[in-house]
Design brief:
three-stranded antiparallel sheet; alpha+beta
């Protein structure tokens, strides 16, 4: 399986959701609206990374928050266990998948 990826999952209370997977262990479950919001944020920073230094989202259906530092070479996602670098191609791909999945 190639990461990052986005797939649909079902939540018992929130219904259809998107799982944004950065690795087998690191993933974020997002409502469809949260996925679209993160997609817009990814698109904005990919277009002009100098306008912000971070992206933050506290998903309603998950116990973990999405926190990432924006840099010239891409986005650095921070989790409790690891940090994952996403280059601009990966950021753009995630933005597209989060918008349409």
């Amino acid at each position: 399986m190639s990461y990052p990826l986005v797939k649909r999952v079902s939540h018992r209370m929130l219904g259809e959701m998107l799982r944004m997977m950065l690795s087998e262990q690191v993933y974020f479950d997002l409502t469809l609206e949260e996925g679209r919001t993160l997609s817009r944020a990814f698109t904005a920073v990919a277009f002009d990374w100098r306008r912000t230094d971070s992206i933050y989202l506290s998903p309603i259906g998950a116990d973990v928050e999405f926190s990432a530092a924006v840099a010239q070479d891409g986005v650095h996602v921070k989790t409790a266990d690891e940090e994952r670098h996403l280059n601009w191609d990966e950021v753009t791909e995630l933005a597209e998948r989060l918008a349409v999945e």
